[in-house]
Amino acid sequence: MTYSNADTTTLPGVIIPEAFKQPDWVEETFAKFQKEVKRNYDTSGNINTSLIRKLFKEIILDNKISPPYPLNKKNVSILLDKMYNVFTDEEFQWRYMLVYKVGFFLSTYTASSFTPESLVLPKEFRIKRQKIIDEYQTKVDEANTENQKEAAILWVDNQFKKLTKEVLEYFREHKDDYPIIDSFDSGAKGSPDDLRKLLVAIGLSINAKGEINDVIPRSGAEGLTPTQFFNYTSQAIVSQYKKSRETAAPGYLIRQLNTIMAGVKLSKTIDCKTSGRLGVKILNKDMLVSMKGKVSDQGIIGPDRTELIGKTIKLRSPLYCKTRDGICHTCYNPDFIERMNLTENAGIGLLSSTAQANMLTAMTLKAAHTGLSLDKTEVDLTTDIFEFSE
Would the pTM of this model clear 0.70, i.e. be above it? Predict the structure, then answer.
């Protein structure tokens, strides 16, 4: 394809087709949003979350969509789906870019928006925590057996977790005073467990042998005693060892999967009419959602088919596909093919191996953190995978 001079704009050493040139309104829209945020920040010295959300809806989304909050990974996907249905194809691609551009812009302000109060546990929760610590000490002093001591340890750790949930809800209700909650809710950084360690209490600490050696009632923001710090760093050594030892297994398996599945393509055949079926037990809602659009003897699988949870269903599967030039649409996933706009001869093998790579890595890291003993949990990927099928 060729373009005339009238169809292009020139940058140093680059010719951009007019069709791909950024419209003027895109930069104007971002500049307007940026100006309003900076003006508010210069006035108050902080970022008002409610105002940011209002500006995001009015300026970036042209007041046509109400974004789902918090804008974590899941809700960003939902937002983009809404945008795709509301805006034209051309406008969508630029609004899509603006959403991420706004995210990068706001992240430059995040650190300075944390007030000192955001890193101090409110007084009412400090009082609750002290009561938990006092009761724990009483339980330990009165314990006559190892089982009673272990029960006390597990009790105090559970109480710290419950208190953390209360703190999270309090921060959400007072968002403007505790903007740190946005980092946890957005999924950008941290989790409830990180907040517990940062503001409530470190909790259980294990030694290099994987045994409980301490219960640390202080938080990271308060600082630890030399003994507590030493005990806590031993836990990091255990975690690092587990990660380095166990992640080699999925790494090699992923390499094998990519090699084996590189040649698997999407067939031109819609339905091979195979009689073969794969029996799969739906363990939970997440598993049901992950199988959206698959064809089964019970009909099309979807997240609303909650009656299937706990049951074994018979699935059409690539394992039983009879086509010679790849995998037929029905055995693969007709809904996924449509959503991803896949065409004949698409490399669905590599798509599948990449998806499995993420699952296997997450599964391994999760297993590596299970249990307090190094030799308590061994990762067996084959067993884990077949646990999901019959």
Answer: no
